[in-house]
UniProtKB/TrEMBL annotation:
This is Putative pre-16S rRNA nuclease. Pfam families: RuvX (PF03652). It is found in: Cytoplasm. It comes from Winogradskyella sediminis. Its EC number is 3.1.-.-. Residues 2-100 form the YqgF/RNase H-like domain. Keywords: Cytoplasm, Hydrolase, Nuclease, Ribosome biogenesis. PANTHER family: POLYNUCLEOTIDYL TRANSFERASE, RIBONUCLEASE H-LIKE SUPERFAMILY PROTEIN. Could be a nuclease involved in processing of the 5'-end of pre-16S rRNA.
Amino acid sequence: MGRILAIDYGTKRTGLAVTDEMQIIASGLTTVETKQLLPFIKTYVLTENVEKIVVGLPKQMDNSASESEVYIQKFLVKLGKTLPQIPVDRVDERFTSKMAFQTMIDSGLKKKQRKNKALVDEISATLILQSYLSSK
């Protein structure tokens, strides 16, 4: 078995999370500037055994696509051309940012630390991955 890499795509920053090789535990990996995302993923896939990539699917409350889906679709085309051998799944990511912020509060992070948007993105990616693992 290989790792599953999760992506919480953003136009400025993108949060990443990954499973262990047994696909049991979802852990935050890092946050990357979005313009560096494809080179980062390509390098990561060369050094780690990645079996699948999971990308957040942002939806509105009425189940319609979020405005950011346009940017994600463009990224997915580039990702498919860069790493055609790795399948990509999508996971509903509604409320992950709010849940990530609440997780930061619950874990006792100070107010200054909770303002770290990169950390919110990384936790959001972890929540997306955990949701994917739970649905399997």
